[in-house]
Each structure stands twice: as structure tokens, then as C-alpha cells.
Amino acid sequence: MKKRTIMNKLGIAVMIMTLSLSMLTGCGKSGDRTSDEVSTEENADITGMVHLNSADEVSTFMDEVYGGVAEDLLPMQVTTTELDLADTDMISYHTGLTDLDGIEGIYLSESMMSSTAYSAVYIRTTDDADAEAIRQQLMDNINPAKWVCVTAEQQYAVLVGNDIFFVMGYQDTASAVLEKAIAAAEARNMKVSDKLEKANPI
């Protein structure tokens, strides 16, 4: 009887030790991430979105922008299209840009009425792009009178994350669209820069 009792106690002790070791091992696995990895995840929420990731996301963004602008301020039949980056003449005509380094996509939003002085441009950039320089080139080189018979009165450009939002048109329209674009970016936790602005003689 005593031998059996000792064996049972030994068996229980071995089982307890085995369970303890497996629990310790499990705990080690759950804490495998380095402090750098953990801090990176925590910082993601602070940093926010840096880019919109697709044409669909840009389209949704622009729909939100226009949905918040008074109808009487918007041009008729505004549509947003993705420009072909291989068509350098078209890119230059609509944006004034000739160097596309650091650019992932360019999206043009204009009225189908060709005599309306209104244009919004969203530029998706790469992670290593100099978005500030691209924004400045856009502001300096875009043609506010590209419609020939009309001229955009005011133009604005901001960085949203590391992407670029630009709008030009009549003062009231351009400022209203910019305001809603900033709100749409902030809703996505995208950092919004200071704005560049320029008035054009009409």
C-alpha cells in the first residue's frame, strides 16, 4: 500500500512540474515581440494614415468631400478620374507636373462642363516621396486658365498624410471644398499640413 501511495504522489508531482513548464513556455511565446515592435504598433495610432491606398479609396474620399459642400457652390456634373501616368502630355496639361518621381497615382476631379473653372487633384505618393516639393511644383506650374475662356480665381494645396490635395476654382467653391477635404482627411486620422494658397487675376 505504501509503495503505491508514494508512486501516486511522485506521479502527481511530475504532472504538476510538466504543467508548470508548459505554462511558462506559453507565456514566453505570447511575449515574443520586441520592445521596438510594440512601440511601432503603439505609434501607428499616433501617426495615423499616411496614404490612401487605391483609386477606390480616393473616390470614396472625394465623394465625402462633395457630400459636405453646399450644392449651389459645386459645379455641375463633377466626376473624378484616374489619370494615366504614362500620358505625360495629359499629366502636364492638368497638373503642370513633368517629374513624376515619387507619385503612385493622380486623380482629377472636374466638371464635365468644359467652361467651368474648377479642378481638384488628389496625388497618392510613395513612402519615400518628397511630397512637399511635389506640392510646390503643382502650385507653381498648374495653369489656372487651362480652360482658355475662364480662369480659376483661387488655388489651395495641403498635404494629407504624405499625399497631396489641391483645389482651384472660384474663391467660395475652392475654400468650401478644401474645408471638407481637410475634414475627410482628419476623419481618417491623416495629419494635415499648413495650406499653400494663391490668388489668380481673372
Strand and helix map with partners:
Elements: H1 2-30, H2 35-47, H3 55-67, E1 78-82, H4 88-95, E2 103-111, E3 119-125, H5 131-141, E4 154-160, E5 163-169, H6 171-187, E6 196-199
Antiparallel strand pairs: 1-2, 2-3, 3-5, 4-5, 4-6
Helix pairs in contact: 3-6
Outline the structure in words.
This protein is an alpha+beta fold and 202 residues long. The protein contains 6 helices and 6 strands, in the order αααβαββαββαβ. The protein has a 6-stranded antiparallel sheet, with helices on both faces. A hairpin with a 2-residue loop joins strand 4 (154-160) and strand 5 (163-169). The longest helix is centred in the first third of the chain and has 29 residues, at 2-30.
Rounded to an integer, what's the Rg over CA atoms? 28 Å
Give the class from helix and strand content and strand pairing.
alpha+beta
- The fraction of residues in strands falls at 15-25%
| Major sheet strand order | 1-2-3-5-4-6
Could you estimate the helical fraction of the residues in percent? 40-55%
Largest sheet: 6 strands, antiparallel
Instruction: Characterize the overall form.
Output: globular
Distance between the termini: 108 Å
Number of helices: 6
H/E series: HHHEHEEHEEHE
How many DSSP E strands? Answer: 6
Q: Which residues sit in consecutive blocks of at least 5 with pLDDT less than 50?
A: 1-16, 18-46
- Could you tell me the mean pLDDT? 84
